[in-house]
Amino acid sequence: MTAAVPEVPPSDYRLLVPRDWFRVDLTRERWRGQLKTFVDKEFTGSSSPAEVARSVWVDLRNTAESGLARGALEFFLRSESAEGSALPASLLISWPPMPRGSAPTPEELAEKLAHRKAPGADVDVIDLSAGRTVHARTETTLDFHVRMPGDVGYLHLAFSVPLSGTQGPMGDLCDAIARSLRWVWDTTNSYG
After folding, report:
1. Phi, psi angles (nearest 5°) of residue 24
2. Is the pTM of this model over 0.90?
3. Tell me, what's the pLDDT at 192?
């Protein structure tokens, strides 16, 4: 069981992500250049046609833009293919804007997500050290909606593992990354 939720929202979070996952900071205007750097690096020396690299860049850009519309903060990418011909494994971290105190309980959110997810999706409420969490798993995706202290909503960790799936070692790694989440408080902030 987790401890009671503190009244003060955190100022930041910490997450342990392996060094070989490429980080794109979506809070800065330069994120498109960072994404292009990742794609260029993945396809340098590849025998894949240029159209494949362009398609991967467009898919990743669209994912980032869609995430930004829902409060995305960071995008981590890991290549799963030596040739770079498949989309990489990824982690999109979002904090959807929500008025303080208006977030549903984890049980209410789990019920809503269970109705929206594809048949066969596993949706449940779990306890992480960071707080009560709605966990949703499909064959290729893992979602962790972590209730934030101070009743300011949920931090959403959205993992996509299109090639190896969520039941193997990559799924286990994604689970370990989510379980590493810790909150950071700025002691100079005062919230009212």
Report:
1. -115, 120
2. no
3. 42
